[in-house]
Amino acid sequence: QVQLVEYGGGLVQPGAALRLSCAAAGRTNRPYSMGWFRQAPGKEREFVAQIIWSTDSTYYADSVKGRFTISKDNVKNMVYLQMNSLKPEDTGVYYCAAGVTGYEWNYWGQGTQVTVSS
């Protein structure tokens, strides 16, 4: 079992930056990938970014390319999401996820709220 805990959310103004962190605990054998998802009010959860643990390859949703950066710390078992130039449409609950095989997301965190508003 793997536990994922996100933190770093908050209320920021448009154009600001925020960094989310995800701590992995428990049976933390190297996952295939780690990712970030978000869910805005009244909308379905959507993919934001992914990093392949063994290769450091990264993938992003079109809506965040060039603004968000996903990274990881192998020693600390941490994953980060650096969010720059935030927009009101980035508002939502952000979830960290871990995929063991690459075919599904097996573990989820409880989410952290990000609100972008003036």
Q: How would you characterize this protein structure?
A:
By secondary structure, the chain is mostly beta strands. Helices cover 0% and strands 53% of the residues. The protein contains no helices and eleven strands. Strands 2, 4, 5, 6, 9, 10 and 11 form a seven-stranded mixed sheet that branches. A four-stranded antiparallel sheet has the order 1-3-8-7, with no helix packed on it.
Layout of strands and helices, then pairs:
Blueprint: E1 2-7, E2 10-12, E3 18-26, E4 33-39, E5 46-52, E6 58-60, E7 68-73, E8 78-83, E9 92-99, E10 107-108, E11 112-116
Parallel strand pairs: 2-11
Antiparallel strand pairs: 1-3, 3-8, 4-5, 4-9, 5-6, 7-8, 9-10, 9-11
Query: What proportion strand?
Result: over 45%
What does the overall shape look like? globular
Helical residues, percent: under 10%
Terminal CA distance reads 40 Å
What would the average pLDDT be, to the nearest integer? Answer: 94
Extract low-pLDDT stretches.
none
Name a few traits of the molecule.
118 residues; mainly beta; seven-stranded mixed β-sheet; four-stranded antiparallel β-sheet; globular
In a few lines, what is going on in this structure?
The protein is mainly beta. It contains no helices and eleven strands. Strands 2, 4, 5, 6, 9, 10 and 11 form a seven-stranded mixed sheet that branches. The protein has a four-stranded antiparallel sheet with strand order 1-3-8-7, with no helix packed on it.
